[in-house]
Amino acid sequence: MTDRYDIAILGGGPGGYVAALHAGARGAKVALVEKARVGGVCVTVGCIPSKALLDTSHAYWMGTHAAVSGVHLSGEVDLPKAMARKDQVVDQLVGGIEQLLKARKVDLLKAEGELVSPTEIRAGETSVQASATIVATGSAVALPPIQGIADAKPLDNVGALSLREIPKRLIVIGAGVIGMELGAFYSEIGSDVTVLEMLPAPLAGSDPDLVRLLVKALEGHGRFKVVVNAKVTAVERRKGGGVAVTAEVEGKVQTFEGDDVLLGAGRVPSLTGAEKAGLAMGKRGVQVDDRMRTSVSGVYAIGDCTAASFENRAMLAHVASTQGEVAVDTILGDDTTMDYGVVPTVVYTHPELASVGMSEAQAKERYGADVKASRFPFRASGRALALGESDGMVKLITVGKDQRIVGVHVMGPQASELIAEATLAVRLEATAYDIVATIHAHPTLAETLREAALVAIGRAVHVAR
Ligand code: NAI
What total of structural domains would you count in the chain? Predict the structure, then answer.
């Protein structure tokens, strides 16, 4: 038994640890229960390590494809070394979070936890009592109904982020975010990657024009291939090594041979104890309202374990963190709600794909003929040309006479960074005129948003109208 806390949090991922830091900063007495390392999947086996590796592969790719810029390099990627550097990045971040928790006087209990009542989390042998509890237990890899999938022990986000050798041929099941990012990483460092996707296009929910451009760019690198309408039905790891992945491709059975197989076919909520504690469940996790309240008074839930919804229901670290802040503010008496209207999403391939707000189709469904899609290609950007990364475009979706920005979609270099300005624009209901009136530094990639806004208002400068 410990002292009574104001807030006890189960799960220390980007939902739970951010909630703990926020609550600690607001002076609450907080306990955080985490069985593994703080930071959760995102910091330890997801977003951060995959980006550390993708930065390695991008540096390698750029270095070995820069002859045109007068740089003649060859060589190969030392994967164990790249993994060691990735581990170092993770260790540094985990250490930083632990220090922050200490500084905010959050008690970190490193134990397997379970919500046993609205006011109690059992952490190993310890009973943690609190006035309010937050469930932030995250998600786990989904095992789809594919024959032999469990026995084949496919790589998942954990396995793929700790390989010691580069597989010559890698088969990826699912062209979702994980399949595309990790597939792109391995193809950039030398694997021949085949991504099998059962739907007619990869990255369901993303702007179809930009997805087409992205696939073209990735396939143009030469070692990456996406096969759509390909439903994987069986996987076998062969005794002598290698894997055989069977798929129905356009209705015909086909077998793909590889050295390894990576599973990226979705994730499912982790519900440690949530059901036992009587929390109502939605289709995809704990049911919550827009203040992250569950069906049980005093119990809140955030992040991947919840059924909280926004367009396409992606499981995203930045959504979980924001939900954590909203849950804490609600517990501490503030009138705050989650707003899922403006959530940026990013796919960290090279080039990157980033989106915020409505797609062109959604906007047309809502606003009809009042919608305009304005495009600016990166090949018309001096900065993108100088970088040697001119694939892709910015697509701006505006509505009405004043060209109010309701969506922005970027496929190109550093789209993940460019989407921040766009996110603010959509949130503040800015117009294309506002973006045009904002002086952007030259030459920058950020100018491409202003150029697209110039197209929107009929004043295109660096492209034909
Ligand atoms: P996902 O749901 O994004 O994609 C899974 C894909 O697998 C779908 O396209 C689906 O049609 C396909 N699929 C399923 N069964 C299949 C089969 N038998 N044969 C062929 N294709 C099949 O899931 P993913 O990529 O595993 O990611 C899980 C979650 O993590 C998502 O919510 C994602 O948004 C999130 N995530 C976000 C990242 C980011 O924001 N950069 C990075 C990684 C993950």
Answer: 3
